[in-house]
Amino acid sequence: MKKIAALILAFSCCLCEPQTHDGNDKANQGTTSVGYCDICSRTSLTQNLGAVGEKIANMDEKISLLETKLQNTEKEVLELRSLTGGTPRVAFSAALRESGSGDTGPFNTATPLKYRRVFSNTGSSYNPSTGIFTAVVKGMYFFRFSMFNNLRSVPSSVVSLMKNSERLTSVWDTSGSDSNDMGSNAVVILLEVGDNVYVELQANRIVYDDGMNYNTFSGFLLFTV
Questions:
Q1: Boundaries of each C1q domain copy (predicted)?
Q2: Which domain holds residue 137?
Q3: What CATH number does residue 195 fall under?
């Protein structure tokens, strides 16, 4: 913009350079014309320079606004990267049997159920070999489990969601007139790093499953604390 202003000034000066005339009358006439041209040129030049200066100021303001927006955008990108890259992603879901059908249990003591058909296990916090979920980060978690009993009178089905050795919630079915029953339960709970969560089949109880995958265990991290 400064170069454009300089070119306008130089061009205006060239248009108004004094010209040489023969004779006194012509000289006087030329002097008057040059003086008039000089006044007009300066007035026009001042106006042009003012307009150019105003445009430059407007462009500087727009550039400042764009720079501010760019800085804000870069900040937002960094915040998004910190969220996606810095916060663990933890989620899993599994069913009881990999294949076949039949009862699980009864056992003489309370036993963790091993959900072997894994649908998802982001973060690898769930171990299908043991049926235990282990928290890798402190936070609020959601867990849900379901239970199914098929054509059994005795023993009945009782399963509980456990945190370490603490019982959180349970689902049960006793013998009755109906042929099968199903239930589920869920919790939202704070876990510390290393806490274990699992579903426990109570002693002398059973659950039934087949390819329909009635018995499931799922959980995911809601947010860190």
A1: 85-225
A2: 91-224
A3: 2.60.120.40
